[in-house]
Amino acid sequence: MTTRLRDVLHTTAAQAPAYQVEQRALATARRTRRRRATAVAAALVLVVLGGLVLPAARTSPVDPAGRDEPGALPDRIGLPPVGSLHATDRPRTGPASVIFTGEAGRLTYDDECSLVTVVDGDTDAYRVVRSGWEMTAGTDVVLSPRGRWIAHDPQRGDPRVDIIDLVTGATRQLRSGVAGTVGTEPAAWSPDGMSLVVRDSVPIHLDRSDHRRQLNLIRLDDGSSVRLAEAPSGTVPGVVVAFAPGGDRLAWQTGRVVTVAHIDGSVIASFPLAPGTELAGKGAWTPDGRWLTVARRDDARWTLRRIEPATGADGGALGTAGVDDVVGLQLLGWTATGVPWVVSYLPHPPEAATYTRPFPNDDRPVYGNIGSVEVLSLPPDGQPPTLLLTAPQEVVSLDIAAEVIRAGRTRAADPPGGVGGRFWIWTALIVFAVGGIAAYRSRKQLALWWENRQLRR
Amino acid sequence: MSQTFHEFVVHRSPALSRTAYLLTGDHQLAEDLLQSALARTYRHWRRIRDGDPEAYVRRVMYHQQVSWWRRRRFTERLEADPAPAQAGHPDPSDAAALRVTLAAALRQLTPRQRAVLVLRFYEDLTEAQVAAVLGCSVGTVKRHGHDALVRLRAVAPELVDPVPERSAR
């Protein structure tokens, strides 16, 4: 039935000439390659341009903390999820209400470096910051008064402070300019967020076996610095630094001595602390700027007292209730109504008696004795403390934005669980990589499949 | 040792040209089809040169032909009913006239029907091999082959062996 058809097909085909199309085919192939290369280059340019333009377009130029509503204090915090996004990752959280560090597995990396956890001002979004050292929030990683910036010492071997902008994700590197410094760590923000007090370590010997310590105030707008203090070997200047509400004066504790000075470095007063007392914390100045506050320990009870900033003379108890059975207190700030908020350090183990020992010079409190932290408000009329925030075990330090304290608002919190955004990003990358390898290895079959698919369309 | 693309084209162009012509039924279209297939082959030459480049080119031509038809089918849509055999057809005994008839008849087929005919009756592939080349099922090949022969029988019965008539009893 088809014999004739076969014959006709062969006869007809035999009459067809050999088409001379090689050069045209080569030209077509090269043109196609050029077009594809151009398209790929254009796509890459668009991606790069998008990466450059989108951050500027999507980032609010205004500090969202400048949104008139400061954040609220969460009533509890949790450990950050595994694979949490970093503070510089998208999407940004905006100004934070709280930062904290600790010894739990999800709060450290490389065995001895801290993952500083950042809690958004209004939501339960968590971010982390990798520091080059073991950090304690409020002492050497500090949150700016409005919660927008975090200052920390990012890495060993490079003496600088990194200031992370939680709104833009940008990081500013700040150097103290101290000759010979081998380490710069932040200590405190000025109330306007325009200056930062930093501690520098300068080796005394070539083998760096000993250091002298300097306390400097750096203005962030022009980079100028003022030397505030220098301490001999073994003493940390400014283990606690507190700015007066107007920002024109500050006080710091070095060993058992408190120094009060203007921000130009001129000393107003310097006096020893009474036995058993410590400068209370970054909120040590009373809201009217007339008094400094110290925390006094009587066995296992801590109370707040006023002292005269010009002389150190005792001004009497603050009138707030004492806090019992804690390792220490740090006064972080005051609400607009004059109520102090403190972070209290719970002992670990709870029944240990060692936490009542005096603090060594450079550890306020002794972090090895801390099991967890709580935030309390201490009503001025002596009413019992109000518990504002609880933390999981092994959270040992915490800092709160001054404006959040001033606003005095708290919120019910639901800390995030599961895994964080970076976990999913890495999972997706690994899946793509494995899929890409598999696709490459079976590229011939895929090419055939694709051609057949095109054919069937 | 791998042959160069130029060597491949020089040696295989005549056979590929014949297939292209049967697929298109038109010299100009056949040239375009072969050029396009060779351009694509050249882009992937490093990958296929150690295999069977000719089979690749043929496969590209078959797929390309169907693809082109799909893009242009609004201009090539077949009529619902096949055109009846023309009374003025040339004498089938004349080879030249038979080729003209074949070209005209092939234009009455869809590209896939044409491809099935060429693969089955020119390349002498089995239905399973045709299905593998075209990336479709054997059933599809059978259907297209059957439809193609029915259409050929309608438009150019002289190209197909006559069906023996049953003697009346």
TrEMBL record, chain A:
Name the UniProt record assigns to this protein: WD40-like Beta Propeller Repeat
Transmembrane recorded as keyword: yes
Ranges that cross the membrane: 37-57, 423-440
Keywords: Membrane, Transmembrane, Transmembrane helix
InterPro entries: 6-blade_b-propeller_TolB-like (IPR011042)
Region (Disordered), start-end ranges: 58-96
From TrEMBL, chain B:
GO biological process: DNA-templated transcription initiation
Annotated GO MF terms: DNA binding; sigma factor activity
Top-level taxonomic group: Bacteria
GO terms under cellular component: DNA-directed RNA polymerase complex
CDD domains attached to this UniProt entry: Sigma70_r4 (cd06171)
Location of the RNA polymerase sigma-70 region domain: 11-73, 105-154
Keyword field contains DNA-binding: yes
Cytoplasm listed as a keyword: no
Keywords recorded for this protein, A-Z: DNA-binding, DNA-directed RNA polymerase, Sigma factor, Transcription, Transcription regulation
Homology family: Belongs to the sigma-70 factor family. ECF subfamily.
NCBIfam families, A to Z: SigE-fam_strep (TIGR02983), sigma70-ECF (TIGR02937)
PANTHER family: ECF RNA POLYMERASE SIGMA FACTOR SIGM, RNA POLYMERASE ECF-TYPE SIGMA FACTO
Name of the molecule in the record: DNA-directed RNA polymerase sigma-70 factor
Organism expressing this protein natively: Micromonospora sediminimaris
Lineage, highest ranks first: Bacteria, Bacillati, Actinomycetota, Actinomycetes, Micromonosporales
